Structures
1.
Amino acid sequence: MLNRRTDLAVEARELWEQSAGQTTALEGVEARDGTREGFSVTTVRVLDERGSRALGKPVGTYVTLELSGLLRREEEAFPRAARALAAELSALLKLPDRAPVLVVGLGNRAITPDAVGPLAAGHTMVTRHLVERAPEHFGSFRPVSALAAGVLGTTGMESGELVSALVEKVEPACVLAVDALASRSLDRLCRTVQLADTGIVPGSGVGNSRAALNRETLGVPVIAVGAPTVVDAATLAADMLAGAGRGEVDPDTLWGGREGLIVTPKDIDAQMADLAKVIGYGINLALHPGLSLADVEMFLS
Amino acid sequence: MLNRRTDLAVEARELWEQSAGQTTALEGVEARDGTREGFSVTTVRVLDERGSRALGKPVGTYVTLELSGLLRREEEAFPRAARALAAELSALLKLPDRAPVLVVGLGNRAITPDAVGPLAAGHTMVTRHLVERAPEHFGSFRPVSALAAGVLGTTGMESGELVSALVEKVEPACVLAVDALASRSLDRLCRTVQLADTGIVPGSGVGNSRAALNRETLGVPVIAVGAPTVVDAATLAADMLAGAGRGEVDPDTLWGGREGLIVTPKDIDAQMADLAKVIGYGINLALHPGLSLADVEMFLS
Amino acid sequence: MLNRRTDLAVEARELWEQSAGQTTALEGVEARDGTREGFSVTTVRVLDERGSRALGKPVGTYVTLELSGLLRREEEAFPRAARALAAELSALLKLPDRAPVLVVGLGNRAITPDAVGPLAAGHTMVTRHLVERAPEHFGSFRPVSALAAGVLGTTGMESGELVSALVEKVEPACVLAVDALASRSLDRLCRTVQLADTGIVPGSGVGNSRAALNRETLGVPVIAVGAPTVVDAATLAADMLAGAGRGEVDPDTLWGGREGLIVTPKDIDAQMADLAKVIGYGINLALHPGLSLADVEMFLS
Amino acid sequence: MLNRRTDLAVEARELWEQSAGQTTALEGVEARDGTREGFSVTTVRVLDERGSRALGKPVGTYVTLELSGLLRREEEAFPRAARALAAELSALLKLPDRAPVLVVGLGNRAITPDAVGPLAAGHTMVTRHLVERAPEHFGSFRPVSALAAGVLGTTGMESGELVSALVEKVEPACVLAVDALASRSLDRLCRTVQLADTGIVPGSGVGNSRAALNRETLGVPVIAVGAPTVVDAATLAADMLAGAGRGEVDPDTLWGGREGLIVTPKDIDAQMADLAKVIGYGINLALHPGLSLADVEMFLS
């Protein structure tokens, strides 16, 4: 299997097709292309064990938005991207109107390409305390709580442990987990958002596996919102050498002494800020369907 | 009672003495002055209900370190301050060697004078995962976990709720809660650290009361580590007018429209960074008594 | 004279009136109130030496915008504020269409209440290099350059020296200098912008006097854009004690040992960010009159 | 010539040797290896036009320190690195004791791998104003001024223009210019500092050429202090493909649509902070030879 080191189902499918050739059908997987607000949307459904084994991904639905216009600063790209994300997210969430939600930002805020989760959590409209304390004004809102969960090295706790503790206390109907992903493709870097109703399963990204955050471990549905922000440099090199006819190369044997090298855009700080805002605003529009972007802006300022 | 709007027991005692005059004895309260590493240390013990009512503070021990040398950048001020804090903290903690501890940074990291808790949590040596996963190297360490708990407005959860959820999961023998305090005295601003074995009881600081973090609510001892970083501007004004012979003035009637004004040093950003580092390193030395400051520096870098 | 320790002409005038009583006329000073985009605008003209002596301000025009709506997050407050500032600034600038301008952000970016200048410089549309290198696309733009000038303690150079060096090289038709000001009034804190065609004359603010930036020292007109972000705590206290009937008190005798204490909003970080953006966008609209706010947003993103 | 896209003389020499084979001598270039404080030091001297053409570097001396121990957090690595850098820098500087120096931090502080210059400027002991204003205390110090010069896109001015303006005003005996470099080798990333007495000549790094900063343009000697913080991803890929036997590949044809991709360590934020501190402290020790690291620490805090 070549599906190591990609967190994107759409990419795992491409890799499968490259390795399997054109003749074999990928059974147990369904894919559909569409557009939303002018952006390409690919929905990959892993239907059963066959599909799961082939792609190395749990059974479930994976929606990929290509937000390439965002980077080119096209007019109205931000509101279109936030609305597209909200629409796709709503379709996955299938939540009653006022069912409480917990938004979790995963990743290390001190490491720029890993900070998209904490940054997006910071753009989330937090309403749980308002609904409880001022129901006369906020009674019609969905109760939303949020936390940047830190990482094992800074908390001593697995994200899974921490989120599980919160779920027991807050009792949300659903957890939304925002995280940085690893891609194999430079084309998708900082331009793509993947929504998955499977939660987050450790070990599929660049190092730093975390305990799973999914319905099995948390007892409630977990929607993962992920954005590829790095390509592992060793994986990229191995892919290139394979492409150059050198056959399979074990990425771990390349630049042995220098782990942790990544390929990333030079202006990663600005791109993280942009992506995190799109994700946060998209989540807000999905969780509070009556609000406009201007309402969200006013609430958060 | 004049003890509103000070979080410092030492200050509550001064205010009581000012209002009561020299003739009355303050019963149920014991105070002792000393020095540690060249810094003044005042220990106020609230012994019983009489003392508690007089000072408006729960029964317990309150230790105040005056770190004035720190600001004057005296030679070796930082290591002396960290060791003094560690020594006083150890005396309050009375913990078995490897009993696990949870360090919680309270306050809003986006508001500079409120960020001392999150910043100090960031200087904490987190070891819980290492003790569990690499006992051959870290088996002799105390398991420490840490979290910046955010604030109600950014999480939708009371700090008390959040910490209570973590305590159930992590099962520490003790919680250390670091927080910014309000002082009435400009002299103590950013120069003082108060340790208290009473935990944190809401409503004694500048606004923003939080649900209590103490043995009653969490089931384990809570040591509060607090640093006065602001003086409420309205309280200061009321104190000054009272001092000028205008009698008691209700602070809330001053500048009615402008809540949230504080008195603070102009270089608050730098002073918060310094204080948070002293607190974090003092906590590390207290929790890992075999380590030197150089060891801590190496671990954290 | 009581006009020490205010940088605002409108405040100097109020102080004069308080001290002089209602019977005397303030000669050599003209004042006019108006509104712009719903905000109050006060224009104080210091006409001659008599006015200059009375207010302690150089002869010239001082325009004060009260942006109180901004803080209350009224709808459309940001675009209205940016347009109001642009309109008043244009009236002072009186510049030919493509005359080059140098925008200078004064103050220390590491000290939050002093950072409004560097932050505003960061929101400035810089076009000088584009006009020179790609005249086919940018030939119709005004050439604008910008610099955060740092402070004496971090550069070893007076802002005046540094800006003078740049003026000789860049040869702008006008310098716009953005700076944090000191106010005496808590009401105006972070809610007011003063535009002055007199440049910046040292010694009128909270400490840290800087060499003058004006037509005399730089050889070109200097428009000062200032925002009061702090009230000096000692001045405030002296004012309060005077108000309480204690007569004139020398602020420098209050809390002698603790210089550098200021009164400021608790959320100063967020308020600085908001103010700096209004100022930067207002400058952009004034310097590039053909552009809309959306154009500016697109250019800067 | 293969020397495009490396800023390091030591690397240009390696590339020349690879392309020329072992049989040819590299004339006009002298190289010498040594150690300083336990770190490897390579000194490459480009002696004449032949050497300059072969390496694509101006005639002059290039000193490369390999600070690999720094990253492995060896004991005392920081003070050893700062002293090693100071010793090599002093040897290049050859300045009279109190000759004034201007330190310039080049690069964009908003782009992490480009921020090493501005960050190092922030660690520089600035003394010019103290020597002028308090000669009784600081008369024995060398007058040092410093500036983070920004980049063309944020100032509208070439770094060369800006520094030239300052040199005319401040009249330093020497300019020290700190900048991020591009390397071709992943091994050297964030582990190497190059000192060069040739100044900075545009066009030898990753894109973003700047006007030259050297004796010709500024009229005083310019010592460049550079640290490789990125490897251009396209160059790396072309090198790998060439290594894999695909022959010469034009990097610009790889991933045409995605310029600005770099290879960098995942924790680039922390590594930039460490490197900038070593560089700043090394500069301080070189410019103020009587001071210890503890003195520098005290001065800057």
Note: The beta strands of chain D are 29-36, 39-46, 60-66, 101-105, 144-148, 174-183, 192-196, 222-232, 261-265.
2.
Amino acid sequence: MDRRRPRRAGPAALRRRPGGHSAQDGGRGVNTEEDLLARVALTWLAEPGTRSVHRLVGELGPAATLDLLLDGGAPEEWLRAAVAARSREGDARSVAADALARTQRLGARIVTPDDEEEWPPRVEDLRRMVLPGGHRRVDRETAPPLCLWTRSGWPLREALDRSVAVVGARAATGYGMHVATELGYGLADRDWTVVSGGAFGIDAAAHRGALNAGGLTVAVLACGIDQPYPMGNAALFDRIAETGLLVSEWMPGAEPFRPRFLIRNRVIAAATLGTVLVEAAARSGATQTFNRALAVGRRPMVVPGPVTSAMSVGAHELLRERPSARLVTGVPHVLEEVGRIGADLAPPARAPQRPRDLLDDEATLVLESMPRRGTVDVDRLAARAGVDLRTALRKLSLLEELGMVRRRDNGYALVTHPAGAPGTSPARVSGSIADPPP
Amino acid sequence: MDRRRPRRAGPAALRRRPGGHSAQDGGRGVNTEEDLLARVALTWLAEPGTRSVHRLVGELGPAATLDLLLDGGAPEEWLRAAVAARSREGDARSVAADALARTQRLGARIVTPDDEEEWPPRVEDLRRMVLPGGHRRVDRETAPPLCLWTRSGWPLREALDRSVAVVGARAATGYGMHVATELGYGLADRDWTVVSGGAFGIDAAAHRGALNAGGLTVAVLACGIDQPYPMGNAALFDRIAETGLLVSEWMPGAEPFRPRFLIRNRVIAAATLGTVLVEAAARSGATQTFNRALAVGRRPMVVPGPVTSAMSVGAHELLRERPSARLVTGVPHVLEEVGRIGADLAPPARAPQRPRDLLDDEATLVLESMPRRGTVDVDRLAARAGVDLRTALRKLSLLEELGMVRRRDNGYALVTHPAGAPGTSPARVSGSIADPPP
């Protein structure tokens, strides 16, 4: 398909088709407006990712779960407290109804697990995600989303099918911005969707790279899609909304207060096939996304940087401490990790083939035993090379044919090329191979 | 001991004390002048590292091995050819005698495995070294040295006991030079001997760093110690000879023609506890030293660099392809690899402790739910934080005591610090955690 020209969604995109039973959320009952309203209300009552709410929705369906919670029937004390606190703010159902109306006014859509055609299946793996030593609530409550808002003609599932997350520091260096832009461009150019968080720095650079390639990019937000944060990226968000997707678990108008960025990160990690960390300081939120990618079994990739850069300390720590973290230096390495098996394999880094590579052991010894300047007689050369006279003569005629040495009346001489003696130029970058002295 | 002030060697340093049998080379017979002369002659007849010669010396002793080779009794055809070719150059014994005289004139010494006090035991591990896919002669013939020339008051064994090799590209970048100098300085400053090959670029930077720290550095040469190569580093070699050691397997006057640099690299790799590769292009001699360190069971370490730098391509490839290659970013990481067990452990990279780190789950939620500007009433705050009213009030008074929030008549407000709201500064470098919007 041509990913450059997005399908436009019909005006009635909000109207749900009867979804029937969904294997995805184990939801019971058809996906009625009531269920949709309940999912929205539940998302408002308890922050997305709350495990017990997601489990109840699977068991009882959204509407019944909403009734239960509003009746103070939440299983955990802290959740009952949270629901009670929110309820003091307003009536969950009317808040949800307003959100639905606002969503329609925005021309946005709400996607639920009942929309099997559009729900991104990989986020369901969050059911099984366990973060090592996850004692903070944001590390514990990492269930799949109840629903997702999006503002695009793109079917969500299709857009995320071949996707890679590129995340990193907000206070990125020029180096990091350059690398992230290149990655975003190169991945999008190869029809991979570039997913990130829309933050300043690396996130924005990755989005821009993808947009510049005319490719598809998805910004997963930690606030309502009608007021993407940060404001400084407003123009970027507009470009993304035009050709790509803005996605959020939070209803329009929702504020991006800090815990939501960590809650959101689990979706970036789970919805993609792999996460590339470009720059991260010693203590960094980008590493949180990375750890979530690891925990949910996605390919964890890290771009190294100068050891002199504080913005790469976190990246290097991950490479040292996480055996499964893969060092990548560019798009080919990333494709090697996330590409279909067999396809997209990165070629090993190699210097250009040199004529010397064609020489056998003895010919190489003879060549390398030639003086840099002047001529040498065959006896002396054989001695230096440690080969017998016959061999020396045989190899010399070969080297002569290859245009590497020339016979003179008083012996043999190297044929020097502009780049220096044959095959020495690559050696010039080596720390332990040197050329013979002048 | 104070490694800054080297013991001066006696004038008669050349005179061998009766070494008796040596476990090191399994040599038989005492280490007579004849044996010494034979070792020198053998080193000249066949390049150092030749396995069959080393084996014969172990079985028959140096003198008998020399007789055997000169009688055309070398086991391999190529070796017989090499011996014959050299012999056409001159008489092995007289060449060796001249070398001994020249060594004495230089005030240099020859160390053999019979000098159990001074012979560096780790080089003997080269007996067991096997290079994967080693088809070139330099990859096959990697036996321990027959003898080593040195020009220093330092006992060789003592100097190499706590040693690390730092190698890398000759066409190093400013970044690589900086890192190598820092490593050389930091290691020497902690009483580690810095070993390298004396080449331009990374090697020279590592030596200089060690010298600047007033520490000990060893240059293992691929030519005679009386004409260290490259000439461009002559001043550096003089400084090393003064306070450190110049070491070589080749007799004074020997030329550094290319195969010798690879032959030499096995000694750098084996004599040290680990090898740090700082910069290397895709095809690089430094990676050869690295592979030898791997093959002989030393700690293989690699310093990453910008993925945009051709001089780091080889380093990154090693980190990707060699599971045992360890990414290191500085001296603490290197010491962690080579340091005595338990000692020299690198502290994990951490941002400075912040007051926020002392807060529990709920207090953090409450703090993070505070609006950046203005005040908020407790009900709304509790709702945003998802905690009950009682908890919100309890945590607020804690935050108030910590000076993070202030109570106003119309609610609570953040106490903003110069660096921004408490604990937000470190988060500023994160790609996926953002501050609440203004």
Note: Chain A touches chain B through 109 residues (CB under 8 Å).
